[in-house]
Amino acid sequence: MTAPTTLLALVQHTAQALEQAQVHFGHGTTNAWDEAAWLVLHSLGLPLDTPLEGSESQANRPVTPVEYAAAATLLGARTSSRKPLAYLIKQAWLQGVPFYVDERSIVPRSLIAELLADGSLDYWLSESTQRVLDLCTGNGSLAVLTAMTYPDVVVDASDLSPEALEVARINVAQHQLQSRITLLQSDGLHALTGPYDLIVCNPPYVNADSMAALPAEYQAEPAMALSGNLQGGADGMDFIRPLLADVARVLSPIGVLVLEIGHERAYFENAFPELNPIWLETSAGSDQVLLLTRDALNT
Ligand SMILES: C[S@@+](CC[C@H](N)C(=O)[O-])C[C@H]1O[C@@H](n2cnc3c(N)ncnc32)[C@H](O)[C@@H]1O
């Protein structure tokens, strides 16, 4: 076929190629069109909000052969490597905020970011909310977004992986939050004392069956960031079990834990039948992120 010569045609062509290659989405986009637009606009050095329809539309913007070649090269890397686009371009976006990313940490996509942005957590916080923990910080995105959302808090951001903490360090510096975010290496809560008024945590929680069926894009991410079975379990709760047994120790009296568990609600309820969490509404439904007060943990 002849090379596309307009921006819209290049996005259409790229979306078709992504669909044909049957790549998997879920690392910043959910469909071929959005990923194609991201890939093309990034390749051409255009803003990601460049309109492709409406009165300001750039749909007919000419595409030079050099630009087409740049997009084709990135498309080829995406389809042949099956790595998330974010790893290939070393950048991911969450709630409109850019983050550096590479294979040392997962691509940021936590639903907790939505809850920070839409004010869902405000009800549980107060003037006294001062210290926050981003447990399992990985790339540091939730620590950064928390610090941006609540300008008066300080944030500890911890992870077991020194490699992930290096990525977090880049993001904290990029957003000039070194004075408010402290990066800490800790296995779960072991090295942490608190007291924290808010803990956000997107831990490894994927069960063993799901781990075995992960698409290549997810296999490109560190296994320790996804698998909740690294202590020999199969229900994905290996990290969460000791966390819930100990977390009241590091929560202040007004403290709350906001915990993401993805599609594992059934496993969670099976493992912790005595708990009565509050399920928080996100774009993915109301069974993927839960909230526990310190009081609820003590009962
Ligand atoms: C699902 S990723 C979340 C990363 C980031 N918070 C986000 O939402 O994009 C889980 C993180 O937990 C970390 N992790 C795994 N086991 C851990 C442990 N025992 N203690 C602390 N962190 C751990 C991994 O290194 C990984 O960075």
Description:
- With 299 residues, this protein is an alpha/beta fold.
- The protein has two domains: 7-89, Helicase, Ruva Protein, domain 3 (Orthogonal Bundle); 104-298, 3-Layer(aba) Sandwich (Rossmann fold), CATH 3.40.50.150.
- The chain is built from 13 helices and nine strands.
- It has helices at 7-21, 32-43, 65-81, 85-89, 112-117, 141-149, 162-174, 208-212, 216-219, 223-226, 240-246, 265-271, 294-298; strands at residues 91-94, 97-100, 131-135, 154-159, 181-185, 196-201, 251-260, 278-282, 285-293.
- Strands 5-4-3-6-7-9-8 form a seven-stranded mixed β-sheet. Strands 1-2 form a two-stranded antiparallel ribbon.
- β3 (131-135), α6 and β4 (154-159) form a beta-alpha-beta unit.
- α1 crosses α2, α1 (7-21) packs parallel to α3 and α2 crosses α3 (65-81).
- The longest helix is centred in the N-terminal third of the chain and has 17 residues, at 65-81.
- The model has no long low-confidence stretch (mean pLDDT 96).
- The site of S-adenosylmethionine has 22 residues, from α6 and α10.
Record keyword descriptors for this entry.
299 residues; two-stranded antiparallel sheet; binds S-adenosylmethionine; single chain; Rossmann fold; alpha/beta; seven-stranded mixed β-sheet; Helicase, Ruva Protein, domain 3; 36% helix
Shape: globular
Strand order of the largest sheet: 5-4-3-6-7-9-8
Radius of gyration: 21 Å
Q: What's the CATH class of the largest domain, please? A: Alpha Beta
The biggest beta sheet, please?
7 strands, mixed
- Please write the string of helix (H) and strand (E) elements: HHHHEEHEHEHEEHHHHEHEEH
User: What is the overall pLDDT average?
Assistant: 96
State the CATH superfamily name of the largest domain.
Answer: Vaccinia Virus protein VP39
Which fold does the CATH topology of the largest domain refer to?
Rossmann fold
Distance between the termini: 66 Å
Helices, by number, come to 13
Question: Fraction of residues in helices?
Answer: 25-40%
For the secondary structure, the number of strands is: 9
Approximately what portion of the residues adopt beta-strand conformation? 15-25%
Q: How many separate domains make up the residues? A: 2
